Amino acid sequence: MGTILDGKRVAAGLRERLKGRVAALAERNARPVLRIIRVGERRDDLAYEKGIQSACSLLGAVCEVSALPSDASSDALLEVLRDANADGSIHGILALRPLPERFDFEAVRAAIDPAKDIDCMSPIHLACLFEGRTDGFAPCTPEAVIEMLKAYDIPLRGAHVAVAGRSMVVGRPLAMLLLREDATVTLCHSRTRDLPAVTRRADIVVAAVGRARFMGPDFFGPDAAVIDVGISDDGSGKLCGDVDFERCAPRVRAISPAVGGVGAVTSTILLEHLVRACEEQLCKRMIGRRAAWDGIASRNVENQTCTTD
Known about the structure:
single chain; about 45% helix
């Protein structure tokens, strides 16, 4: 049996590190505040929202919810986003996705203040990522994959990583993060010829194709580390991943389960982004106050000089 990559353990370690940063913010009378914006009452949205609220509470952060009815207009959503952008007490904004098809997603993602866009919806953050810059927020799930690999000391520098899935949610941004870690990346997709032969040659395989138990033992070499990002209903009401876990786990070096794997880390990465956004916004306000104070002091000196001439 390969090593089981336990996302809950990785998430717990991340939360412990975040508690120190939250405590440091509290010493400056600052507390991270997240605003969740939800349209309708989809069961998966409500479950995710509840999980984020619980995680915020454990961390000492505040989680607020702006719930819009399922028939809300695009203008109503954009107005809520503008209000959250303008509210200086809010540090992070999370608009739950997918949005109803009638919404203009491009308009919504462009409307979020990049400084508060902790879920990487803004095209500005994606541009930073693809340019190799580190000053933006990366998508949470790809970042969670990197965090899990590092937590288990699975080497990335020089490793051959096959990413099965080329979506802008996971596959493409993950490829950029892996390149940043000096990995060699093969980005696979539905039209890749003989996909099992490609993934078998990889040191690390990330499954993000969105098809239940699509990848069996023939997709992996015996020394592979397998990260399963997929989550699907197997048809009987049970959750499963893109990888056939039961058949593959005994035949690989390491593997993450669909439940309790990457998903557990993803929500904690979101909180790390919230804490970072709070830190950065506090820093900017302090710099702004310092600049304003310096300006006042400078004007006072000038005024004093004028009166003594």
